[in-house]
TrEMBL record:
Protein name, entry field: Lipoprotein
Domain of life: Bacteria
Phylogenetic classification of the source organism: Bacteria, Pseudomonadati, Bacteroidota, Flavobacteriia, Flavobacteriales
Amino acid sequence: MKKPKLFNKHSNKMTKHLRNIFGTLVVTTLLFTSCDKKESIDNDCDGNCNPATAESFNNLREKALDKLTQNFQFDAEDTNVVFTSQKGVKISINTSCLTLNGEPVTGPVDLEYVEIFEKGNMLATNKPTMGLKPNGDKALLLTGGEFFVEATQNGTALETTCSFQMEIPADLTGGVDPEMILWDGIIDDDGNLVWDEQERDAANGKGGVFGEGNQYFGFFQSFGWTNVDRFYNDSREKTTILVGVPTGYNNANSAVYISYDGEETGLAQLDTYDETTGLFSEHYGQIPIGLECHIIFATEENNNWKYAIKAVTIVENDIITFTEAETELATEAQLATLINGLP
């Protein structure tokens, strides 16, 4: 098969920071070993490639999310229940606080749970870490974990009148960061997620998160998507960037993400698309000039991931372009390995 490859817009630079040299070597190794003969996917369509439909692209994301979904069941009369996730997160729920249409719940309850710590899973499920700033702009967040928790009975979503607690191993994201706070996930009509800072009640300790030892302790006020995060900080001057994608692709059947070199716990997304120019945009002006990063184009083809990755050093008003010839195909597992291995 034609081996996957990275495309470096600035290959004429003769020096790199030692960390980035090492990271690039790791990614290159992954790229050339991720597709063995048994799992190889032919991307040579002899010029007859058809762009993905919005439905097929969304289905690919839904499959990725389904694979990460963990299911538990308990009896509402057990009062206090504790579950331990695959990653070692402990979820403690006071069942006496569960309500259905305002009435206390009795009988069996189903719990649906998702945990995301790695960039590869963020990309595959379309759950990047973009937080709302006070002025409405969006900027990169660094995460201590993204979580979805939902309790249902006979398929109907329940509510809780008190907080439920989660104990999150901090070593999953590099150790305790005292600046972490809680964020609520908001999903728009197009299925895109943005994070909004959760209001905290300091008087009774609700709505907060704190680190102790090597754990985060979070007190979640409602079911749904919640994130332990803080904004990425960089004092360099900022700029906007534009990204062009292959013909036939737009924000309905593809996506563009940014992986910041040196930051393993966050994934940015270019969330706007201009139908006139055919360009994705980070129009908030939040990208640091001089930032070393990897721009990722992702879409679907034949129930697999179609992608391209470019190593870029951001310049003012940068424009990055992907072509069809630069794309490769990969399984979800192969793509996640590539994304998680970026420097």
